[in-house]
């Protein structure tokens, strides 16, 4: 299990009304997501209520009153490496200089899936159709970046992304081999640790 410096994960599996749910706790913040694989084109979850949880950088989500929404994606290259975003080292950027995920804010009436398709296209300059995205996690809870706020988001996985066809427009591309995750663990932003925890439970490091 990946445990970045200063970040501790505890995973438990619960049976709720006959359905299995996994709950992960990361430095005291609860996250919930289905334990079983969810199809990429599954219906998006309902609009956020007052019970949400934090994982996206502040400038990468939509503010709607006290509710923020966003999506991100863990991208895997054709040769099995992780394609992540090194965030700009600028004063106004959350997690500046850290390694995180590509993704962003939900706009208008778009679904989370529509949002991640649009954001990934904008940020890496390569179009991945909706069917290429697999929903691997969703979370909701208190938004610790906004006083009395709530946050809701979904995390996706997309495979077989061609590195040589990417044009990154935000931050810069960080190509990470699975074996290097422990070495860079203290450089990972919270969205990355959250997504990688799910990913590595499904496909453990060897």
In a few lines, what is going on in this structure?
The chain has 206 residues and is mostly beta strands.
Query: Quick one: overall form?
Result: globular
According to CATH, the homologous superfamily is Nucleoside Triphosphate Pyrophosphohydrolase
Order of helices and strands: EEEEEEEEHEEEH
What is the makeup of the main sheet?
Answer: 8 strands, mixed
Description:
It is built from two helices and eleven strands. The protein is mainly beta and 206 residues long. It has one domain: Alpha-Beta Complex (Nucleoside Triphosphate Pyrophosphohydrolase). The strands form two sheets. Strands 4, 5, 6, 7, 8, 9, 10 and 11 form an eight-stranded mixed β-sheet that branches. A three-stranded antiparallel β-sheet has the order 1-2-3, with no helix packed on it. Strand 1 (9-16) and strand 2 (19-26) form a beta hairpin. It is globular and about 40 Å long. Residues 1-55 and 57-61 have low confidence and may be disordered.
Keywords:
206 residues; mainly beta; Nucleoside Triphosphate Pyrophosphohydrolase; eight-stranded mixed β-sheet; three-stranded antiparallel β-sheet; 13% helix; disordered N terminus
List the helices and strands and how they pair.
Blueprint: E1 9-16, E2 19-26, E3 29-34, E4 62-64, E5 67-77, E6 82-86, E7 99-100, E8 102-105, H1 112-124, E9 133-143, E10 149-161, E11 172-176, H2 190-202
Parallel strand pairs: 5-10
Antiparallel strand pairs: 1-2, 2-3, 4-5, 5-6, 5-8, 6-7, 6-11, 9-10
């Amino acid at each position: 299990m990946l445990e970045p410096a200063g970040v501790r994960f505890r995973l438990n599996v619960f049976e709720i009304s006959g359905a299995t749910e996994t709950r992960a706790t990361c430095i005291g913040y609860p996250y919930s997501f289905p334990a079983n694989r969810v199809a990429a084109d599954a219906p998006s979850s309902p609009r956020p209520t007052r019970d949400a949880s934090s994982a996206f950088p502040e400038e990468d989500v939509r503010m709607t009153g006290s509710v923020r929404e966003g999506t991100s994606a863990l991208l895997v290259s054709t040769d099995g490496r992780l394609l992540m975003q090194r965030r700009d080292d600028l004063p106004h950027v959350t997690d500046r200089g850290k390694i995180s995920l590509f993704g962003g804010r939900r706009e208008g009436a778009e679904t989370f899936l529509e949002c991640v398709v649009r954001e990934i296209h904008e940020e890496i300059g390569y179009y991945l159709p909706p069917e290429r995205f697999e929903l691997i996690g969703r979370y909701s809870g208190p938004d610790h970046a906004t006083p009395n706020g709530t946050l809701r988001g979904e995390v996706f996985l997309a495979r077989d992304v061609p590195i040589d066809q990417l044009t990154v427009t935000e931050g810069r591309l960080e190509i990470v081999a699975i074996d290097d995750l422990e070495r860079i663990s203290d450089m990972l932003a919270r969205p990355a640790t959250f997504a990688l925890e799910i990913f590595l439970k499904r496909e453990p490091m060897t």
